[in-house]
Design a protein that fits this description.
This protein is of the alpha+beta class and about 120 residues long. The chain contains 3 helices and 7 strands; from the N terminus they run βαββββββαα. The radius of gyration is 14 Å and the shape is globular.
Length: about 120
């Protein structure tokens, strides 16, 4: 799945938190989608070419390719929330290990990231 970030959409939707890391008009590959029970959805974007990823409000983007990566699955995450992502990323503690730069988590992230890029 590919999306294009538009600052104008982010401003209109009040979804400007954290978007300074993104470039207006740039296309990004979505690595994960999180749907909150409150109705908002978020895209995990790799915004520094394999060095960092974060969740951004989907209201700041337009979809340029709706193709869903083959390694995504749906995982409930409490209440009415759920995530579409690789199974390994849904395991408890994965993101904590990733952000702590655990070598196993980083390798797993990169493996799944490559698979997503290849199928997007």
């Amino acid at each position: 799945m590919r999306v294009r970030f538009l600052m104008e959409k982010a401003e209109q939707a009040g979804a400007k938190q954290g978007v300074a890391a993104l470039r207006d008009g740039t296309e990004y590959i979505v690595l994960e989608v999180f749907f909150s029970g409150g109705g908002d959805s978020f895209f995990r974007i790799d915004f520094t070419q394999g060095e960092d990823s974060a969740l951004f409000n989907s209201a700041a983007f337009v979809v340029t390719s709706p193709r869903i990566p083959e390694n995504w699955m749906m995982f409930p995450s409490g209440g009415r929330s759920f995530t579409l992502c690789p199974e390994s990323w849904s395991r408890p503690g994965f993101w904590e290990s990733y952000y702590d730069h655990d070598p196993q988590a980083l390798a797993l992230y990169e493996e799944e990231r490559r698979a997503i890029i290849e199928s997007s």
